[in-house]
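Q: What does the assembled structure look like for these inputs?
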Amino acid sequence: MDALNLTSSTDSNFIEQMKRESGQDPALCYQCGNCTAGCPYTQYFDYPVSQIMRLLQTGQKDTILSSKAIWLCATCETCTTRCPCEIDVARVMDTLRIVARREGKVSEKNIKLFYDAFLDSMKQHGRLFEMGTLLSYNIKSGRVFTDADLGPKIMAKGKIHFLPKNIKGKDKVEKIFSRFREKAKRHG
Amino acid sequence: MAEKEYAYYGGCSLEGTAIEYDMSVKQVMKKLGVSLREPEDWSCCGSTPAHTVDHVFAAALAARNLAIIEKMGTSTVTLPCPSCLTVFKRAHLSMMGDASFKREVNELLDEPYNGGVTSKSTLQLMYEDIGLEAVAAKVTHALPDLVVAPYYGCILTRPPEIAQFDDPENPISMDKILEAVGVKVADYAFKMECCGAAFGVPKREMVNKLTFKVLSMALDAGANCIAVACPLCQQNLDLRQSQVNSTMGTNFNIPILYFSQIVGLTYGLSPKELGLDKLIVSADALIGTRITVEELAQREAARKAEEKAKKVKPKEDDTKPEES
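A:
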């Protein structure tokens, strides 16, 4: 196992912020490793989830926020379900993503691009337009042939719509987005 | 049944890539005498992408729908999709448990949500509200050749504080429903192991490797098909099965059916009505073995008679004294 670099100064504000925003106390973690043992994604993580918890205890803000692990977590809730200290670990990971996004430190750009394409579609139409979301992702990520192999299969089954369906209250959904943006701006 | 009418929030996938889930749930519920009412002008729940932005924002996207459902005067909404379900439940529980969170969420909405809606997965509705006895009572057909591996995915019963249903480590509700309609189920260890969720587009290989494990484990357990209750699981296992084969060098050809499609088949509904032609990996060969329960009974009786005859025969030729 790689040694973690804990020499950079501990950011206690970050620890406090995370406690407040996630509603979880990372200090309760005694590093049993149960979360990592059950994590289906751990082989793809740069830091196993129990190490993310340790990094959080020691306030290693930059290391955590620039980690791939927080974006590769699928919120499958296995860690939360099994934590003997009753820490909602998936909530911690979720909150870390939110903070990383807010601070513009996103290590897995394509995952964020996909999420953004999804949300844009929702904002525009009120519901998810699957085809539009994929195409928008393909263009923005530059990976234009993503899932091109699946296109003919799914088209043959008539399961994909080529035109979006707008809901009547799409402006109301859009308002949720705009009110949130305004509020976020006000609070910095 | 305490209540026969429920609000029904299908969600975006069920209008597109999971249309057969929608078709089969509606058909099965009709058979069970349950009426489903769609909330007027519902919007997307926000799913995984919204909760990477902000918790209040994510809850508001769900709560817009909860507010619409609340106004319908139906206290329970059933959701076939576990992702929509967990978002609805989390929004509801967070708002009910924290007044300031509730206020913040409602500030983003035109119509506030007051907390009058209970969200249940369609699986939970069938298992708990309708009940196994009523589910079994409608069976007219048998699928004797099917061995189904029920695959629950990760969040249908997790975390227990949110899901409030079945077991978070070893769920049995889908197993029980399938057994109630006379279908053989295979038990295996991977019935909750994550399929790769929403990463199919940005991280295809990772998802293929994860679904590979689920498919392999189901096969090893002796299953010839998998039952699911989640549009994303279905998509990763069915639509992406060809990608699994090319990534992993395998040759899987395992039909992935929604549990509601299997139940519908035992109710005598046509494969077309249940959207079975929408599956990418064809289930036609398996479905083709469907017979009526009367035919099954005849077949069973014939088999027993044959067995009996076999047992009797050696006795006739036996010259030795009979052993007791």
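The beta strands of chain B are 5-8, 35-37, 76-79, 118-121, 141-142, 147-151, 184-185, 225-228, 256-258, 291-292.
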